[in-house]
Design goal:
Elements lengths: L16 H7 L2 H12 L9 H19 L3 H27 L7 H24 L3 H11 L13 H4 L1 H17 L3 H5 L3
Helix pairs in contact: 2-3, 3-4, 4-5, 5-6
Length: 186
């Protein structure tokens, strides 16, 4: 009998970047934690050292994916997102703020914001150069380096259909059970 460890657990359902990394590429995350983050001191040497260790670990995690500056940037980007998430949670704890009943409204917004941040990161992961990443980011936010004729570009001309498909697929990702949850019933 061969038992493979769980490696992905609905990462796009995460409500923050820390949760995303607890659900995404779980075996790599565990390796980075056990063999880099903890030996560097983890969170045992103060907040500044903890944040430095997180950032170094994520940059090395980016470099693990390939010897390119875009991968290093992707790792650093996720490292800074994790630092911002930890700082935000620390601020909430210090102020005693609790989400309470507003969680039903906050959770979908947090999930969408996390998804948005992750998608931005995928641009750097996929791009071969920073120029490619800048072009893609510009296009994602409505800018373009080339004039576009909406009548001759099928994707733009049919944007309502594409938006409907994207909405349906995102609803499926966020609302449907994953395969582990489905097969867990048997």
């Amino acid at each position: 009998k061969i038992c493979l460890p769980l490696n992905f657990f609905s990462p796009y359902k995460a409500t923050n970047i820390i949760s995303f990394w607890q659900r995404w590429h779980i075996t790599l995350s565990r390796f980075l934690r056990d063999y880099l983050y903890i030996p560097m001191g983890g969170n045992r040497r103060g907040v500044e050292r903890r944040y430095t260790n997180i950032l170094i670990t994520m940059v090395i995690g980016g470099l693990w994916h390939g010897a390119s500056w875009t991968f290093v940037c992707w790792g650093a980007y996720h490292g800074f997102l994790i630092l911002a998430n930890h700082a935000w949670l620390s601020l909430l704890r210090k102020t005693g703020f609790r989400l309470g009943n507003s969680r039903t409204i906050v959770t979908p917004l947090a999930c969408m914001f996390t998804f948005f941040c992750v998608v931005i990161g995928w641009v750097f992961f996929r791009a071969e150069t920073f120029a490619d990443a800048a072009t893609m980011l510009s296009a994602m936010f409505g800018g373009s380096t080339h004039p576009i004729d909406p009548h001759n570009t099928p994707i733009i001309a049919d944007w309502k259909r594409h938006l409907a498909w994207l909405s349906a697929l995102l609803a499926l990702v966020w609302l449907a059970p994953n395969t582990v949850q489905i097969f867990g019933r048997f």
